[in-house]
Design goal:
Largest sheet: 12 strands, antiparallel, barrel
CATH class: Mainly Beta
Order of helices and strands: EEEEEEEEEEEEEEEEE
Strand content: over 45%
Strand order of the largest sheet: 1-2-3-5-6-7-8-11-12-15-16-17
CATH architecture: Beta Barrel
Length: about 280
Amino acid sequence: MALVTATPAQAGVPYDAGDYIPAKPGTNLVLLYGQTSSATGLYDGGHEIDSKAKLTSDLTILRIVHFSQVADMPFNVQILQPYGRVRTTAGNASTQSSGLGDMTLVATVWPVNDTRRGHYLGMTAFLYLPTGDYRAHRATNIGENRFKGVFQLGYSHRISKQFVAELGADVTFYGRNPNLRGMVLRQMPRFSVQAHARYLLGEANEFNIRAMYSRGMRGDFQGQPQDLDPGSLSLLAGVRHTVSPTLQIMLEGGRDVFIRNGYKEGARGQIRLLFTL
């Protein structure tokens, strides 16, 4: 049986539609995210082992982005800080964690930036810092008590005036959690792929859909092998509206279609406010 611990966003590093199209050097963005999700049903090896187990999370994320150039290539640096609450329920027992999540430092460079044809290829490095609220004895934590590193590739191609296709792939490397309920957790890398289809309604509006698949993440819990492979497939749809040159709103909703291990997310909603400074 797989060891299950509850923390936010355990399957891949999803990015927003349009994230891999760079802004002009000198642009500063401030983004605010409001996320809520609900998962019912705990799975092990693709089989539901507890139909009444629940995981809910409510998060607010502050994301700050600055664009510049390096060797004539677009480049940005980002910082993300989540805050929120995660709660699990099994039978009559429930646990929760609230407070600051792990801070993330991000940098992206675009070796391909063909604005004429609408072709963009970006490479992104993520570093997750173990700064979030964490208690070793709890089954539910908003922080992970370990470093994580992610390398991601993102490609965007404008097929026509209205259609844009985007593809992404990433690999996550996990540091050691030295104190998970008094024991040590080690995990192997996880791999994820995602695809976005965007339909542009002029410059101010768009509709987009995303499919994402994650595999890997087998681990070792105090010397005992653990199958922590999420094996998850999720779908999400979103709409974007540009209110003004300095304000953009995006709404998204989605769910897991399949999951091998962990909680199966039945509903996810997000609102994103983007401010250009």
